[in-house]
Specification:
The longest helix is centred in the N-terminal third of the chain and has 37 residues. Helix 7 links the parallel strand 13 and strand 14. This protein starts with a helix and ends with a helix. It folds into 2 domains: 178 residues, no CATH class; 186 residues, 3-Layer(aba) Sandwich (Rossmann fold), CATH 3.40.50.11660. A 6-stranded parallel beta sheet has the order 3-2-4-6-7-8. A 5-stranded parallel beta sheet has the order 12-11-13-14-15, with helices on both faces. The chain is of the alpha/beta class. The chain is elongated. It binds 2-acetamido-2-deoxy-beta-D-glucopyranose (7 copies). One 2-acetamido-2-deoxy-beta-D-glucopyranose (NAG) binds next to loops. Keywords: Glycoprotein, Glycosyltransferase, Golgi apparatus, Membrane, Signal-anchor, Transferase, Transmembrane, Transmembrane helix.
């Protein structure tokens, strides 16, 4: 009796177990096949790589006879962050699929990793992202024509020129702050009043004419007394010499008309510690007519978030940089110190400081636009472009020149 019950129970267990196993196998069938290429890099492949590296010439070998692993159309697209660095130093982008899901991207079938041995072979990655700061020697020795090689950079082209000629005709996609990149990632974002992202863009068009400055904004700017401020932390480098010289020139001219440039920071006459930037910004908002938004590095389209100090704090930016600022700022909202002579800049400043009616017109844009820092975790575009194979990709034959027209001087 007892034995029979035992047998029944065991049989029942087995049936239930097998049954559930059946479903398990059924459900994961696709996953099991996927695992064929998710298997960790074999020691064997590592050995092959080593051999190639030892014997190879100075170019990447495009393996045309490589048989692409069979993939399901529903598969994830695997993106390898090659040298860990990634579009921005302060990046908060996490590995896996999370970033795409959390951003509610239209396409989220992408998977980010910096584990080079996640798949059987480096050639299995759909895309590989390289940071501008990557030695040629460290590049993968093998690639396939199916793979998308992505050039990413958030550092300025003049500080990080690309020098090795192997990079010409090498990348399939550029992902940088330059506005003619395949995926643009400017450091600042321009929104219209409906919160739609509208710029910056290479062929930016601005509302014309803009509405008169509102009473609310007029109230915020009517008690200003001091001419100009500049918050600067990095002053004695070669790169920034030109802007330093220009600032000194402008400062002298201002002194002549009884106005001052207050420089806050290590090399200035005023103190504004980094951890108390809020206090300085509040001073800027209350007291200063103008702010010197001088870029550290002069490269095309390189406008850093420092421009947001004046824009978000009701001061007028006096800009100096490598960008065509009409892609970034509405006409009549700034003074371009690279296009005008120092005397012209100062006379525009004096004119505005003496005439509230002229000064207030610099703020008309508030009626139509808002500015913010580009969110660093916004990577929907990356997954989108990998899902749109018809997108015209720019394999740039003269890549080094595209990235920095004066690269030869810097290499
Ligand atoms: C590759 O190296 C060879 C010498 O090993 C050199 O002659 C050639 O110019 C190099 N090619 C490139 C594209 O750097
Ligand atoms: C994504 O959508 C969810 C639900 O609609 C929302 O709570 C969340 O804030 C959105 N995230 C972003 C980054 O827009
Ligand atoms: C990527 O660029 C390489 C080198 O120019 C090219 O051979 C390859 O076909 C391109 N791949 C795609 C998917 O466009
Ligand atoms: C600057 O950009 C504007 C608008 O995008 C364009 O009309 C103008 O020609 C550009 N100027 C230069 C010098 O490239
Ligand atoms: C420039 O802007 C117009 C609309 O204003 C658009 O149709 C066109 O595609 C843009 N060109 C480029 C190169 O972005
Ligand atoms: C210069 O400005 C100060 C205060 O801002 C004022 O007291 C002084 O009279 C001015 N001097 C001239 C020559 O305008
Ligand atoms: C790609 O470029 C070709 C020719 O330059 C053009 O005809 C085509 O419409 C472009 N495709 C897309 C998706 O932009």
């Amino acid at each position: 009796m007892c034995k029979t019950i035992k047998t029944i129970i065991i049989t029942a267990y087995c049936v239930i177990f097998l049954h559930s196993l059946k479903y398990l196998i059924f459900d994961t069938k696709e996953k099991i096949i996927e695992l064929n290429y998710l298997v960790r890099t074999s020691a064997n492949f590592r050995k092959i790589l080593k051999d190639i590296k030892k014997n190879r010439k100075n170019t990447t070998i495009l393996t045309l006879d490589y048989e692409r692993p069979r993939r399901f159309s529903s598969d994830l697209k695997f993106i390898l962050k090659w040298n860990n660095a990634y579009i921005h130093r302060r990046s908060v982008i996490t590995n896996g699929q999370k970033s795409f899901l959390y951003q509610n991207c239209t396409y989220y079938n992408c998977y980010l990793t910096n584990d080079k041995s996640l798949l059987v072979d480096l050639r299995c990655f759909d895309a590989i992202v390289f940071d501008v700061d990557c030695d040629w020697d460290e590049h993968p020795p093998l690639r396939t024509p199916y793979q998308i090689y992505i050039f990413s950079a958030s550092e300025s082209a003049s500080n990080y020129p690309v020098c090795n000629s192997n990079y010409d005709n090498y990348y399939n996609i550029s992902w940088t702050y330059k506005l003619d990149s395949d995926i643009t990632k400017p450091l600042i974002t321009i929104l219209d009043k409906n919160e739609n992202i509208i710029g910056p863009k290479a062929n930016m068009t601005w509302i014309y004419p803009m509405l008169p400055t509102s009473e609310t904004v007029k109230k915020k700017i009517m008690y200003k007394k001091k001419a100009a401020a500049w918050f600067i932390s990095n002053c004695h480098s070669e790169n920034s010499k030109a802007r330093q010289i220009l600032a000194e020139k402008l400062s002298k001219l201002l002194t002549k008309v009884n106005l001052t440039l207050d420089i806050y920071g290590w090399c200035g006459n005023m103190v504004c510690p980094r951890d108390r930037i809020e206090e300085c910004l509040s001073l800027l908002r209350k007291e200063y007519f103008f702010y010197f938004a001088f870029e550290y590095s002069l490269s095309e389209d390189y406008v850093t978030s420092e421009i947001l100090y004046p824009l978000l704090h009701y001061a007028v930016p006096i800009v100096y940089g490598g960008a065509n600022y009409s892609r970034f700022l509405p006409p009549g909202s700034y003074i371009d110190a690279r296009k005008l002579s120092p005397n012209e800049v100062v006379s525009l400043m004096v004119e505005a400081i003496k005439n509230p009616d002229i000064y207030k017109d610099y703020f008309k844009w508030h009626n139509h636009y808002t500015y913010k820092e580009t969110p660093q975790d916004d990577i929907c575009n990356l997954c989108q472009i990998l899902n749109e194979p018809t997108h015209n990709r720019s394999v740039v034959s003269n890549f080094r020149k595209w990235w920095n027209p004066n690269y030869e001087e810097h290499c």
